[in-house]
Design a protein that fits this description.
The structure is a homodimer of 110-residue chains.
Chain A lengths: L2 H12 L2 H10 L4 E2 H5 L6 H13 L3 E6 L2 E6 L4 H9 L2 H20 L2
């Protein structure tokens, strides 16, 4: 998988609030699919599909031990997201600078 | 639009490589839709649809002056993405710490 494709998967994976909530649950430690599904008002199959999307993005790891599947968080793919957004940091700062200049100027005229 | 919904839109918008390339083009300054479309091997209609997705996410602003439409970048919604990912920073660091500990330990045994 090349870097662009994997960034596509990571961003698409985290664009869904249920999937972000699953990641948030896993920050408290590894859990089985049933535990992960518990707070959601949806079928286990639907939650499993969300988990698969997260696995494909490399954000969730699955450990099989017989019939027991344990899910854990792997936050490392998010570094790509940070790297991509950081290139835009100066643009939102510039925007704020322009706003500040505007209000400063307004303050100077009576 | 609430914050969660808008984060969904922003992440979905930037999950596509064409849309990221459009944002990248707009870092060089405002441009009309035709200019933005130029490097892509797709119809103007397809590019316009991508631009609309970026507008809905608040990442692109459109200024109308008669028939001329000028697009410009608004990077501010990306701050939400940074805020969201920053909560996971300690998890990828922990992962690296564990790896480092593992290799340090390996290095100590002959």
């Amino acid at each position: 998988m090349n870097i662009t494709a994997s960034l596509d998967y990571v961003l698409a994976a985290i664009s869904d609030p249920t999937r972000r909530a699953i990641l948030d649950r896993l920050t408290r430690g590894p859990a089985c699919v049933t535990d992960v599904a518990e707070p959601f008002d949806m079928s286990l199959a639907a939650v499993s599909k969300h988990v698969q999307t997260l696995e494909r993005a490399g954000l969730v790891r699955r450990q099989r031990k017989g019939r027991e599947h344990t899910l854990s968080l792997d936050a490392r793919p998010l570094r790509q997201v940070v790297r991509w957004t950081s290139r835009y940091e100066r643009f939102w700062n510039e925007h704020l600078d322009r706003l500040e200049a505007f209000f400063t100027q307004k303050g100077q005229t009576p």
